[in-house]
Structure formats: C-alpha cells, structure tokens
Amino acid sequence: MPSRHLWLRLTCLLLVLALLGGYGYASWMQLLERHHIQRLDWRGPSLSQDGLHLAHLGLHQQGPAGELRMQAEHIRLGWQELGSAAPFWQQIEVSRLALDWRPAPQPPASAEPSLDLQRLANALPLVPHSLRVDQLTAELPCAKGRCTLRGEALQLGRSQTLLNLRLTLLDAGNRLAWRTQLRSAADALEARLVLAINGRPQLELRSSLQDDADGMLWRGELSAPTLGEAAALRDWLNDWTFTPDTQPPETPRNAALSASWQLQLTPGAPNLKHLRQASGRLEASGTLPEPWPIPGIGQLQGDFSLALRSRQGQWLAEQLTAELTLQQPFNDWQRALPQALRSDSLQLRIAASPDSGELPDTLAGRALPLTLDLRGKGPTPFELRGRLALTNAPPWALQLSGAQFETSSPNLYLGDWAAHQVAATLHFDAYLDRQRLSLDLGAESLLRAAKLSGPDLRLERLSADLSDLQLNAQLSDDALRDWRLEGTSTLTAQRLSHAALHPQGWRWEGRLNATEERLELDGQVAADVGLRLPFQLQYDDARGLHAHARLPELFLRAGNPLAKTLEAWPALLELNKGRLSATASLTQRPGHDSPLVRLELTGKGLAGLYDRTALSDLDAHAQVRLDHGELNVELTELRLAEADPGIPLGPLLLRGHYRAPITRMKQGTLQLRRAESGLLGGNVRLQPGQWNLSQDNLLLPLELRGLRLERLFTLYPAEGLAGSGVLDGQLPLRLGPSGIQISRGQLAARAPGGHLQFRSERMQALGRSNPAMQLVTQSLEDFRFTTLRSRVDYDPQGKLLLTMRLEGQNPAIEQGRPIHFNINLEEDLPTLLASLQLTDKVNEIIRRRVQQRMLERRAANAPKEP
Q: Entry's InterPro entries (predicted)?
C-alpha cells in the first residue's frame, strides 16, 4: 500500500499536470484567437521514428486580411531540428494541399508600398528549413474574378540567409517550372528567378538590392535567349491578368531578350517613388527572328538595342539601334487609304550618327543623333532617309533634317481619277513635338505623273514643283490643329486635253495658302500658245468657293491665242487686229447646288473675217451670268464700222439681252433694244422686241430707209446700168428650220422718183433684132421714173424674186409720153453675193471660201441622174 508520502507526490503531480494542461489549453485558444483561426481540426494522428503523421488537417482563418481555408492530406512533421519556437517543425511534407484565399476589400492605400529589407530578413527564420508539397491546388483572386492554380513538386528550402523555392505549375498540358533563390541579409537582398516551360529554359532574372551611403543600389540582369514557349506563358498569365472581354496580345514564337541595369535609389525603404527618382543606367536588346503579331500595329521582326541613363529620374537615351521589319503594318489605319497607297511591309533601320547638325533650343544639349532609313514595300513603294535628332529625355521632340522621300507607283486610282507612272521626290526638314509640327520642303521637291485623267480632263507628262512649300501645325490630343500650308508652287502639264480646249501644254505658277478652314491660290495660268490668265481662288467653310480669272488685253495683231485654245471658238471667225480682254468669276455658296458664274468681255477695234464676211473696227462689251441653272447674256453695246458679205453693211449697232435655261442653251428668249445698220447709203433697222427661240418660226420685221440706187448699181455687176433714187421698204424676214425666208416684202422709191440708165451693146443688139424690144431698150437708155415698186420674195434655197412696177418716161421718146414696165427678176442671191466678192481686192481667205461655197451650191443644184 502506497505510503502517504507517495500519494502526496502523485497528487501534486496530477495537480501540476492539470494546471499545465489548463494553461496549455488556454494558451492554445489564445493563439488561435490571436491568429483569427475559426476552426482547426485534424484526423489520424500517429507517431513514428521519422516524425508526427496526420491523415488530414483542416484550417479556417478569417480576419481583417481576409478568409483562408486550407485542406492538407497525408502530412509528415519531421523530428529533425524540432524547436520550441515558430515554425516549431523545420521538416514538413504534404501529399496534397488545397488553399482557398479570399482577401478582404482593401481601402485605397495612402502611401506607396515599399520593401523593408530588415523586416524581410527577420521574417526569413519563420520559414521551415524544408517544405515539400506533392500536389497543390489554390483558389485565388484574379482579373476574371476567381482562378485555380494547380501545381506539383513544390519544394522550399532554407538556410540561415538563403531561401530556395521550386514549383512546377500545370496549365493546359504545359509545365511551367519556376526556380527562385532569395538571399537576405540585414543590408542586402539578392534574388534569382529561372523559368523553364516544358523542359525548355525560357528566362533568367538576377537582381540585387544593397544599402549604401547614398541610399539603395539596385543591380539586375534579365536574360531570355529563347522564348519558344512564350505562348504557354501568355496563356497562363491570361487567366490571371486579363479580364474576359480583353484579348491578350500575341507572343513571339521565337525571340531573344536581354537587359541589364544599375540604379541608385534615394535613401529610404525602396518603393515606386524612389524608383522613379533613381539615377543609373539601363541597357536592353532584343531579337525577333520570326514575325510577331502585335494588335493594331502588324507583324514585327528584327533586332534592336538601346542604352538609357537616368539622373534623378530624368531618363536620357544614350544609344539606339534598330533593324526591324513590320509586315501588314497598321491595317486599321491603312484601310482609310486607297488600295494603291497601302504598304505590305515597312523596313526600319536606325543607327547612331556622329553629327545631328544644327538643333533648335528644344533639342540642344539633349538630343540623340541618329540616321533613319524607312522603306515601304507594296503597290506604291517608298523610301525615307535622313538625319534624326531625338530627345533623350522628356519632354519628347524630334527633328528630321536633310531628309529625302522617294516613291513611285505604276497606277493610282482615286474615285473617277486615274494616275499612271506616278513618282515623287521630296527634300525636306521637319520638326515635331507634343505642341507643334513644321515641315519645310527644299529644292527639287517634285511630283510627277506620266498621265492623269478624270471624267472630262486628261493631263500628260505632269510635273509639280513643291520646293517652296511650308507646313506648320499645332498639336492637341495627337491631332493637327491650326495647320497652315503656304508657299509658291508650279504645276506643268506638257499636254492638257479637255472637250472645251485644244490639246496643248499648260502651266500654273503662283502662291498657295491653305488652313483647316481656308484655301487661297494666287498666280497665273499660261498655255503654250501664249495665253496668260492671272487667277485667284479662295475657299472657306463660311463663304464657300470664289474664283476669279482675268484675260489681260490681247493685241490680236500679234496673233490670237484664244482661237488656238478654245474649242468653242468659231472655226470661220478670224480676228487679226484690235484688242480683246475679259474677266471671269465663279462663286459657290455653302448649301447651293449650282455655282454663280460671271463673265465680262470687251473688244476694241477688232477686225478680221467671219466666214466670207470681212469685219472692221468692231467694239463690243458683253456680260454673261450663269446662276441657278439659267444663262443670261447682256450685250451692252456692239458697234461695227463695216461688215462686207458682198454688199457693205455698216455702221452696225446692237443692244440686247438673251436668257435661256442652261439645259436648253439655244431655246431661250432674245430681247433686242436696238438693232440697226447702214446699207447702201441708208439703213436697215429691226424694231425693238422679244423673240422666243424655242419656236419653229421667228418673224423679224426689217425696216429699210434711204437705200440709194446709185450705191446698188455701183456694186451690181451689170454692164451699162446706172441710176439714182432713194428706196424705202419692209422685209418680213422669217427664220425657220429650213432657213431664211422672205414673203411679200415691199420696196418703193421715194417721191419724186429717180433716174435709170441702161446702155449696153447687148441690149442694143437685142433691140435691132427684135422690133418689140426696140422701144424697151430705147426707153431704158434715159428713163425718168416716178414710181418704182417691188415685191420681194426669198426662199430658203437662196432664190430672190423681185416683181417690179416701173412708171415714168424718156424725154427723147414721143415727147416724153408715160411708159409703164412690169419686170420680174430672179436671182440666186448667195451666188450673186459670192460673185460680188470675187475681186482683185478681196482677201485670199475669202476668195477660197467663196469658191468652195460656189462649188458646193452648183453640186447641190445640179440635176440628179435618173
């Protein structure tokens, strides 16, 4: 039987154990509460020589940072290096580990996150010396909401200052093997990250942070000699970093990247602010041996390298080289261009240059001198070369000097316009920054085309000299604002063809001034035949289009360039003397469908020919207006000293107005306010009136006053015929589809009458052979008439019929007894007029035209063969 002393000892021991158990339980509960552990349970504990085994371990933690659920299977906690402080067990093995982490919503951080090296060094001993997880599943927040991370072979090893982590992640059949090494000390941190995908090394990152007297020194190297599995890395990152409606960029199938840096951070815990204010150097290079599709840009391929230097956050570019090819460049932007102007690929070469030339103040002392060579391949290949000065620190700016741009295309089509064998050579200097753009074209900047044709126009061997043009613009939100293009330019076409013009060469030379709202042209248009037209054009959004052209006085004695220029110039009209001038204007108001056209013509002392009619001393002034589809011609005055179609007419005076729809130019309304002409010592006049030319027959009642017979007999080629007297009359002249016609016209001699003499050998022989005609021939040798009346008829075939009544006496016959004659005369008037023109004094051109016209009339009137 135990002694009392033994029972006392056992009782004390049990009491101590109970107290220790109670204290341990209370401490354990406080520990769980302090770490916000809501539930902790395990199953299947067992002990063995190699450690403590648990079949299952579950944990539910919910605190200010968020909610964590953990499920672990088949856990071994090794006895090796078992300690009395966290993490207690240094050797941990887990067969399967499942984590579900839901972070609590965080308020916006007031300060940027920083890296505390001392705190990291103090936290390193809390990591077990060895941790291995065979299978890992983690539900974590991501850009899409919640994502699942699956991995295997998680191995974590730690020494006193070194941490090694190996993790293999599984994603869509790919194995992403991460290997991380972290070395920590009180004043330094070194990291190394290596990634291999499907057994192929992809990238390696080395980085170190170290405290020094000036703050923190950060060194690093990034090496990616091959990125053949970059697509797998992109697909894995896609779930974690991109939202469902975001399309991740394509990754290069094969690429090489490298970078190195050494940055001095300002004192304090490293954060983004210190990084932005760092000083140091960065070098980077890359190789894309295969095309890499970049959305919105194209497929990029080639090499590049750069070196950057920073002084307290001010980054400067020290070196830049690139040799890149871009396939299918900027497709979205190029769709706005005509097919012929789109490029299939771009080749860019940039290299360091020993000299950047003269620089503006915005680039002086901070420019990186480069040489630029940009080439485009496609239907319209081009090449751009020059010296490029690029700022090596913000604010950015660039200058392109001594630049030359060359391009050519066999065919270009813009709407209804087509250009063939187009070539351009531009020499220029340019400047660009975030506020402005300027471009100055230099000498021999030319645009050429073998042919340029539109709906109504064709230009051949076209050349535009743009050597003096300047473009200046303000930039806002990457768009041009307040731009201005100005300077002189020359446009030459060796041959211009238009329905209204004779084919010949034309040249424009003048000044151009264009802005976003306004266009101004001021210069001169010249034709090869010597025609010169000063020309001005203005256009703006508010007032529309206004163009003005002026024809300086042409002295026609030196030639008539208008006849050699205008197709509408009458072929039978030749002016060889006098002066001719004109002004023309065109106005197109906003919102109006048709333009307003004004034309003013002035002729002084004009002389020449129209068909078989000689014209002399013609003065004329006319105003033409085309508005709202209607043509108005105001003939202020036309004065002609003489027109000679065989019988001299003049002086002639016309004043009138013509109005017609533009669609029916020949069917308008003619109003004559004055129309008269001298004729045979008298005059012929048309009473003021108005005529509608759309009618089939027009009646023009002509009034004849004071026609003198002596003038008529002077012109009429009849042997021995003479006389005197004054005639008046009316001729109802009709214009119809078949031609000119006069029916029942009247002529009569004024009282007291006149005198006729007809003495010819042929008439006397007729009287001797025919007694009935003897009295007639004797009477007409000296006939004093008191009455001379005639009916006048003229048909469209040119036949003139005069039915005359002649009353009078011959004093030598039967003591002057009255004698009456009824005479019918028929004459081919066009032939008669033509014969009157065939004299030695007539112009040779008129002679040829008269002879040709007479041959045509004889052929038309000849009897037709049965």
A: YdbH
